[in-house]
Amino acid sequence: MATPLPLEDVHALWESSLRSGYWAECVAYPPNHSRVFRLGARPAGSPRLALRWLRSRARDIADQLDPAAAPQLEAWLRDTAAHQRALSALCQGEMV
Predict the structure, then answer these.
(1) Does residue 96 lie within any of the structural domains?
(2) DSSP-derived 3-state class of residue 1
C-alpha cells in the first residue's frame, strides 16, 4: 500500500535530491485531496536514465490501474513527442 506524504515533504525530497543529480519520482494526486501518494522514486545519473525509469514505472502503474483510469497513462507511454519534450526540459535543468 502506498504511503501518503504531505506536499511539503515531497517538495523537500525533490529539492534535496536535485543538488546531486536527477531524481525520478512517480506520485498520485487524488482529486479533492491535499496529499500525494508516492508510487516510487529513485536517483538517476542522467536525464535519459530518469525518463527511462519513469516510463518503466508508468508501465507497471498502468497495469495496476482501474480500466477507466489507464488510458491516459497508456497514451503518455506511446507519446514519444512528450518524452522528447520532457528529456529536453530535464537537460535544461527544469523540473518536469
Answers:
(1) no
(2) coil
- Say yes or no to pLDDT of 66 above 70: yes
Q: Which amino acid is at 2?
A: A
Assigned domain for 62 exists: yes
- Check if the beta carbon of residue 3 is closer than 8 Å to that of residue 34: no
Look up the domain containing 84 and give its range: 4-91
Residue 54 inside a domain? The answer is yes
User: What's the rounded Cα separation, in Å, for the pair 95 and 89?
Assistant: 7
Strand-strand pairing, 22-28 and 4-6: unpaired
pTM (two decimals): 0.72
pLDDT, mean of residues 37-53: 92
Q: Residue 93 carries which side chain, given as an amino acid letter?
A: G
SS3 of 59, please? Answer: helix
Give the length of the chain: 96
Q: Is the predicted pLDDT of residue 51 greater than 80, yes or no?
A: yes
